[in-house]
Amino acid sequence: MKLQRLQGKHALITGASGGIGLAVVEAFLTEGAMCTAIDLAAEPSAELRALKQKFPSLQYHSLNVGDTAAVKALVTQVNQRSSVINVLFNNAAIFDMAPLLESDEAMYDKLFAVNVKGMFFVMQAVLQGLVDAGQTGSMINLASQAGRRGEGLVAHYCASKAAVISYTQSAALAMAPYGIRVNGISPGVIDTPMWEQVDSLFAQYEGLKLGEKKIAVGKAVPLGRMGVPEDIAGAAVFLASDESAYITAQTLNVDGGNVMS
Ligand SMILES: NC(=O)c1ccc[n+]([C@@H]2O[C@H](COP(=O)([O-])OP(=O)(O)OC[C@H]3O[C@@H](n4cnc5c(N)ncnc54)[C@H](O)[C@@H]3O)[C@@H](O)[C@H]2O)c1
Fold first, then answer.
1. Is there an atom of ligand 1 within 6 Å of 18 CB?
2. Overall pTM > 0.90
3. What is the pLDDT of residues 159-175, one digit of tens each?
């Protein structure tokens, strides 16, 4: 039987209903972790319900990660009811874009409320639980290649993802004395539901046909294709597991070679 690399871990996965989050829930469960999945919808997605049939320990909670009080309350409740959360896959985020001069305050507030504020306060709540319990753990924050380099049409989203990289570094340094690791994953272009919106917005602003941007970005990847959510799941399992025990403060590019560091 294959060795399970996440036995004894309790992982919280945000934005778990589909896309990258869902693939990571499945990979973590397969590797023996207990998983608590979070997303906006009142009920778990059909895919999460199917996973629960196979892995009955999977729990689902409806939560807006931008609601800091609700985040704190939920993490406290989950920690009290079960083992303390010691792995975080901090994944929930939203996308939007517009030409720079039209990138208004409402878009800024909306993106930063989820991608930055939500990301930070979910991580802080999980870290507080670990410090209180005197336990170690591994946090994984979802950045993006968009956080490595600005884009004329994507300013607010790019800045929100650059903030993820910065918070990952600060939290890693703050938590190193507690033996808690904090890393990021920076995906390139991954074929998920988010890309339907990305593709149609690029079509609108760059005068492309629907689907054209998606084909172009896939062709431009050195490995010659868009990623799939499972491409991220492998890196997530590694960073969550003790195999990465000496890695902290890093944001790992998982992008087929798009960004070199
Ligand atoms: N797909 C890509 O090409 C790509 C590239 C770089 C980075 N990323 C990052 O990877 C992560 C996952 O992306 P994805 O493509 O799977 O996205 P997705 O849109 O397919 O899934 C995101 C999930 O987050 C949930 N969510 C959104 N706002 C939330 C909130 N306020 N509270 C709780 N849940 C919320 C959504 O309901 C959805 O299920 C994101 O952080 C994204 O920015 C994706």
1. yes
2. yes
3. 999 999 999 999 999 99
Q: Which CATH superfamily is domain 10-188+228-252 in?
A: NAD(P)-binding Rossmann-like Domain (3.40.50.720)
Would you please indicate which residues are annotated as catalytic (active-site) residues?
157
The tokens describing 169, both together, are 């570094």
Q: Which residue has the least CA distance to atom 13 on ligand 1?
A: 20
How many Cα neighbours within 13 Å face the side chain of 36? 23
pLDDT in tens, 206-237: 999 999 999 999 999 999 999 999 999 999 99
Q: What is the pLDDT of residue 3?
A: 80
Tokens standing for 142?
Answer: 């979802």
Check pocket membership of 14 for ligand 1, CB cut-off 6 A.
Answer: yes
Task: Evaluate: CB of 19 within 6 angstroms of ligand 1.
Answer: yes
10 DSSP β-pair partners: 34
What's the half-sphere exposure (Cβ side, CA atoms, 13 Å) at 1? Answer: 6
Closest ligand 1 atom, residue 113 Cα: 31
Alpha-carbon distance of 15 to 31, in angstroms, equals 20
- Ligand 1 binding pocket includes 240 (Cβ within 6 Å): no
Helix, strand and coil content of the chain, in percent to the nearest 5, comes to: 50, 15, 35
The values of phi and psi at residue 196, to 5°, are: -60, -45
Q: Which DSSP letter does residue 186 get?
A: E
Tokens 């049939």 locate to 53
**Residue tagged 């591994």 (tokens):** 138
| Dist CA 111 CA 97 (whole Å) | 10
* CATH 3.40.50.720 boundaries in the chain: 10-188+228-252
